[in-house]
Write a structure and sequence with these properties.
68% helix; flat; 0% strand
């Protein structure tokens, strides 16, 4: 605990001394990035291209091994479209409508419990009206 407090008290003063001594971290790095040699940029690009080619070759070799295993055990190659989950037609995946679109074209599939209850009550009332009761 004492070390933490001592560092807090002396740390800011130590940083100011380092700045006076010329130990600037941020300024020099920015100058290096902005004034990079075009040869270095070209060299990095070539290294990146070689790395990509190396990994592409490795992946091609892996695919040959996979195909050999598939042939040996009579396994069908999985297709890309099987791996992708089919889109479900639920409220989460559908495109949302703006309030203006909702006012113009209301969905018939919308869940409206009040309308459902009134329709059900009306149909029950009609069916009960058609049944002859002995006390009528």
């Amino acid at each position: 605990m004492a070390a933490f407090i001592a560092k807090q008290m002396i740390g800011s003063k130590l940083d100011s001394v380092k700045e006076l001594a010329g130990d600037k971290k941020g300024g020099e790095e920015e100058e290096k990035v902005s004034a990079e040699d075009p040869e270095l940029i070209e060299q990095r690009r070539e290294e990146e291209e070689r790395r990509r080619n190396k990994y592409a070759k490795m992946e091609a070799e892996r695919e040959k091994v996979r195909q050999g295993i598939r042939d040996k055990y009579n396994i069908k190659k999985p297709e890309e479209n099987q791996m992708i989950m089919p889109e479900l037609d639920n409220g989460l995946n559908r495109q949302k409508k703006s309030p203006a679109q909702l006012a113009i074209d209301p969905d018939e599939d919308d869940f409206n419990p009040i309308k459902m209850a009134t329709d059900l009550f009306g149909s029950v009332k009609e069916s009960l009206a058609n049944i002859p009761f002995p006390w009528k």
